[in-house]
Give the backbone structure.
Amino acid sequence: MAVERGPARPSRILAMASFDDASASLIDEIRRFRVGERLPIRASLLLWPTAGDPGVMDVDSCASEPIGLPKARVIRQRVASFVGAGGLVQDVLLPHEVAPHLAALAGCSTACVLLMQPTVACLAVVDGAAVRASYVSWVAAGAADTETARLLARYQLVARLVPHVRRWASQAPDARMMACGRFPDLRPVMVPIVEELDREIEVLDVALVGRSDEDDVDADETCGRQLAWALAASGLG
């Protein structure tokens, strides 16, 4: 995803694409995308840690103490494909580092922010510019062939996430809670978590005001775009 910023107008999405990071032709695919869309060479990247990285806890872990945070410098070799495709990386940030900007876009300076990807979540407590965060990961479930199987997989994941979310929410009992990210059916996933916590979680699946390029974007995709807006709002790139 590429985002354009300008002093006289809001940021807008320039182009979007998904790539299989296991593809042998990944560098060529990124290069064709970047050149074909005439994207700028310089870029700021949001880098998600994965299972096994230092600072990422398994979702089934019973540990209650933080294990530290992932370090971008440790896992930044994952941007090699982008550099190989002719891009120039000027900043690499982790999700918790853009959480304050996400909260600011939502109109608050104190918040509990849940950032979701298909196999990892970042739970961040934002207080102004200060952030406390933790990461949990899980193995992706196989494709469900029935609606019943899909619902079962969803509730099984929710049951595993709830203890972590409860600890996260308890750090700021009066703060606004919000969730976003490229996670399928994020709003339905949040419903049982809200019931367990008896506390509202706002799903950021409504387009930002003034984003004409979001008119035809569905809720799940909007949830995924919010982090790109937060990265743009951070002043990087």
User: Anything to note?
Assistant: The longest strand covers residues 110-117. Strands lie at 2-6, 9-15, 42-46, 56-58, 88-93, 110-117, 120-127, 130-137, 176-180, 202-203.
